[in-house]
Every structure is written in structure tokens, then in C-alpha cells.
UniProtKB/TrEMBL annotation:
It comes from Boothiomyces macroporosus. It is found in: Cytoplasm, Cytoskeleton. Belongs to the TBCA family. PANTHER family: TUBULIN-SPECIFIC CHAPERONE A. Supercomplex made of cofactors A to E. Cofactors A and D function by capturing and stabilizing tubulin in a quasi-native conformation. Cofactor E binds to the cofactor D-tubulin complex; interaction with cofactor C then causes the release of tubulin polypeptides that are committed to the native state. The keyword Ribosomal protein does not apply. GO terms for molecular function: beta-tubulin binding. One of its GO terms (biological process) is post-chaperonin tubulin folding pathway. GO terms for cellular component: cytosol; microtubule. This is Tubulin-specific chaperone A.
């Protein structure tokens, strides 16, 4: 006879929290890099236009900018999903809220909050 598997979720471990914290931190940094790169590229295009550079060069740089801008929605989506998961993990009553991993995770959540707002 087969036993029915319980519908309960796997207990959250400190390792799970540490991994998800790393994902949130890394994805937040990635988002920041893409935003910084986009601004840098916009400034570069403006300089080229001010210098009356070849239209081909300007258009090529605009293509580079578009590629960077296309990465932003996916990165934001991944950051939001990881952030939401981490917040849910931190609300679990079974974890040790005083552990180093949890304290670090809470700090990462605070730092990432403006990015997902």
C-alpha cells in the first residue's frame, strides 16, 4: 500500500536562508551594474552626438544601450521573486532569529527593499 505524502513544505534551514540571501544580494548588485552601465552608455551617446560623430557609431552605441536596457526587466523580476522568497523564509517561526545567517539575511532584505519597491 502507498502512503499519501503530506502536503507540508520542507522545513526551512539556515542553509536555505544563506543561499537565498546570496541570490538577493547578487541579483541586487547585478541590477545596480545594469543601471550604472545604462547611464554610462547614455552619457557616451550624448558625447558622441555633441561631437558630431559618425551616425553609424552613434547607432551602434544605441544598440548596445538597448541590449543593456533589455536586461533590466528580467533582473528586476528575478530580484523581486528572490526577495519575496527570502522575506517569507524569515517569517518562519521555526528558525533561530538570532543566528548569524538570519541577522545577515534581514540586513540584506533591508538593503534590497528600495530596489523592489
Amino acid at each position: 500500500m502507498l502512503k499519501k505524502q503530506s502536503a507540508t513544505k520542507k522545513p526551512i534551514t539556515l542553509r536555505d536562508i544563506k543561499i537565498k540571501s546570496g541570490v538577493v544580494k547578487r541579483t541586487g548588485q547585478e541590477l545596480g551594474m545594469y543601471e550604472k552601465e545604462a547611464q554610462k552608455q547614455k552619457d557616451h551617446i550624448q558625447r558622441l552626438q555633441d561631437q558630431n560623430a559618425d551616425i553609424h557609431d552613434i547607432n551602434k552605441q544605441k544598440e548596445v544601450l538597448e541590449e543593456t536596457l533589455m536586461m533590466l526587466p528580467d533582473t528586476k523580476k528575478r530580484l523581486f521573486a528572490a526577495y519575496k522568497d527570502l522575506v517569507e523564509m524569515l517569517q518562519d517561526a521555526s528558525i533561530d532569529h538570532e543566528s548569524e545567517e538570519v541577522v545577515l539575511a534581514k540586513s540584506i532584505v533591508e538593503n534590497a527593499a528600495p530596489l523592489v519597491a
